[in-house]
Amino acid sequence: MSEKVELLSPAGNLEKLKIAINYGADAVYAGVSHFSLRIRAGKEFTFETFKEGIDYAHARGKKVYATINGFPFNNQIDLLTKHIEKMAEVKPDGFIVAAPGVVKLCREIAPDIDVHLSTQANVLNYLDAKVFWDLGVKRIVVAREISLKDVKQIKEHLPDMEIEIFVHGSMCFAYSGRCLVSAVQSGRVPNRGSCANDCRFEYTLYAESTNQNTLFRLEEEPGVGTYIFNSKDMNLASHIQEILDSGAVDSLKIEGRTKSPYYAAVTANAYREAIDDYYAGEFKAEKYQRELHTTKNRGFTDAYLVHRPFEKTTTQNHEYALSTGSYEVSGLVTEDENHFMCKYKIYPGNDVEIFAPRGAVIEECENEIGKIYKNENGIYYVNFNKILTETNKELDSVHSGNTNKIQLPGKLPYLTMLRVENTEEV
């Protein structure tokens, strides 16, 4: 095992790649095209922007793993071969692959690039892990349904095999994504990257009596239906200490390539703090949970890593598909560091919290535009006297959808987020 565990974050596009790195990730994972098991996220990257992301990461000592974890049909093999060849040219630090045949193909085409086995391969034991190790796989992303005890046993049998586990993000109703509900209902195949998240929908249940030729509608709440398939989101931040104490885990992975830039920032920052605090002997679970609860979520569960499945009765959320989160992002600071783009709404006179990349230096200031200041708890805020666009047009307020850059009272680091507490209900 490496000296310090790796923190691996999702990168749905180039901006989110930069955010994850600046907020604490050691590595990111991303993909190009439909071979990447997240078609929506895969479309965000071209080969050119993917290479730009790799160069950006490498310049900062970070890594990028390329996802090629779809399950191809025969008529896609030639296209897949060309795709692997092209991906190899941009020199990612590893390929994330799910199918044994694709593992073999990657090793033949690009033997100098490490192969990581996707969680879609559902590895739960050392026998399966050994098969992939013999195929040349360097790291296994174990199934999200695995226990920490089983992770430790895999490490005992294969001490040189790197093991990566999911610690945060969406959970599937099915077994690590092996689901056909979306394919049956909407023709979007989950295991080829186009899941429509049908498990998140509300459903109305009926009971039928063929003897009486009657049909009864069943309701948990009148007019609501039920989110019967909806799993809560994984959140293992409170268990980082016991995970790292095991000595069996090399990388902690956050799910969410299609989630927001704010999610990418908060999760990278919170788990970075948890990891660093663990090694410093200052682990405080409530601190990380406070931040993670500011993101949109379906309710949190610690899933199955530290509990056996039949011991868990709180892994599903039957009440709603996605909460609002306790904070809204009002703005994102642009590359020139003098402006921000509005993402929610900002009014003059309101205190807006500054959530900055790790290691950022913020200077307090006050002028006609407003002020940047630090409160008694050490938290930085910005308060605007006036809302001015880049061209000095004054606005009463600014809301999401406004494409004008808005002036800041002083410089803030690129990718800094401005956020306000959310008072809306779920």
From TrEMBL:
It comes from Arcobacter roscoffensis. PANTHER family: PEPTIDASE U32 FAMILY, TRNA HYDROXYLATION PROTEIN P. Signal peptide: none annotated. The keyword Hydrolase applies. This is U32 family peptidase. Keywords: Hydrolase, Protease. Belongs to the peptidase U32 family. InterPro entries: Peptidase_U32, RNA/ubiquinone_mod_enzymes. It comes from the Bacteria. It holds the Pfam family Peptidase_U32.
